[in-house]
Amino acid sequence: MLATPPSVAPPSDRTTDAPPRRGFSDVLRELGESDRERVSVGAILDAFGDRAFGALLLVFALPNALPMPPGTSAVLGAPLVFIAFQMMIGRPVLWLPRFITERSLKREDFATLASRIEPWIKRLERLLKPRAIALTSPIADRLTGAACFMLALILFLPIPFGNMPPAAAITAFALGMIERDGVAIAVGWFGTIASFAILFALGAGIFAFAAPVMRLFGG
C-alpha cells in the first residue's frame, strides 16, 4: 500500500507566519526609544533599508508642506534634490554625502518630534496598502524620481507659500513608495500637475503686473 505523501501548504499559506512589515511610524518610534544619544540622518537611512528613498523624502518634504519660517525650504530642499536625482537615474541604493548623514537631533528632541507626527502618520497608514502595483515598478519609480526632482527645484524659488503644494506632492509620492501604494503615487502626480499649474499662474500674474510698469518706465 502506498504511503500518503505529506501535505504541502501552498506558497501563500507558508508565508502567513512572516512578521508584518513595520510602518513608518513604528520605525520612527523605535528610533526615538533607542538608547542612542542622537538620531542622525544616517541612522534613519539604515533603519528604513530598502525603503530609504521614500522615508527620507518624507522626512525632508513633510515640514515644507506645513507653514514654516522663511528659509526652511532652501535648507530642506537641498537633500530632496539629492535624493530625487538618485531616484531619477535609477540608483538602487541611496547614497548621501557625509555632511548630510551626520546631521542629527538629540534623541529626546527626535522622540518629541516623532510623537507629534505619529498620530497623523498612523491615520495615513491605515489608508495605505499595496495596490496599483504598476505605479510602483522600477520604471515608475524613476519617473516618480524625475517628478520629485523638479518639485524639489521649485522649493528653492522665493514664492510665498509656494513651497507647500510641491512639498505635499512629494509627501504623497514618499508615502506611496514606503507602502507600495500606487493610489498615493497617483495623488502625488495630481499634486505635481497642480504645483506646476500654480507656478505658471503665479508667473503669469507677475508678468501681467510687471509688463505695464516696465512699459511705463521704458517710455
From TrEMBL:
<dbReference type="InterPro" id="IPR010331">
    <property type="entry name" value="ExoD"/>
</dbReference>
<feature type="transmembrane region" description="Helical">
    <location>
        <begin position="182"/>
        <end position="210"/>
    </location>
</feature>
<feature type="compositionally biased region" description="Basic and acidic residues">
    <location>
        <begin position="14"/>
        <end position="23"/>
    </location>
</feature>
<keyword id="KW-0472">Membrane</keyword>
<feature type="region of interest" description="Disordered">
    <location>
        <begin position="1"/>
        <end position="23"/>
    </location>
</feature>
<keyword id="KW-1133">Transmembrane helix</keyword>
<keyword id="KW-0812">Transmembrane</keyword>
<feature type="transmembrane region" description="Helical">
    <location>
        <begin position="143"/>
        <end position="162"/>
    </location>
</feature>
<dbReference type="Pfam" id="PF06055">
    <property type="entry name" value="ExoD"/>
</dbReference>
<protein>
    <submittedName>
        <fullName>ABC transporter permease</fullName>
    </submittedName>
</protein>
<feature type="transmembrane region" description="Helical">
    <location>
        <begin position="74"/>
        <end position="97"/>
    </location>
</feature>
